[in-house]
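Need tokens for this chain, all 142 residues.
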Amino acid sequence: MLVAEILKDKGNVVHTIPPGLSVGEACAELDRLRVGALMVCQDDSVVGVLSERDVVRVVARHGAKGLARPVSEVMTPDVVFAGSGETVGDLMARMTDRRIRHLPVLVDERLVGVVSIGDVVKCQIAEARHEAESLRTYIAAG
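Here are the structure tokens for all 142 residues:
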């Protein structure tokens, strides 16, 4: 399955925040939206990703004062992207190698969606079920 198909099924809603937002305000957005990461955008460009891990790190290092810091200081600035024509296997490998859980998807340098590790796992399970059902049908047909 391709990234484009995943986005077609899940939709292309992308939750973004500006880099100047405080970490505390970003945490409120993570909670309100019930997501694990937010894309940090400035002038239509993705400049970073703020994940729950980033929040944990800043709180571990600075305590509650870390929540007052701007997102730009704690986000992951080296964003790893996915393309719409990549396969689920490609994403799984990249996410595993880089130890990341969210990949923003770019088409013509435009942010069109985000694929999470949950989306990838869901797709893998669906493919495995389809394959098992095909094998059962084949065996039953004799």
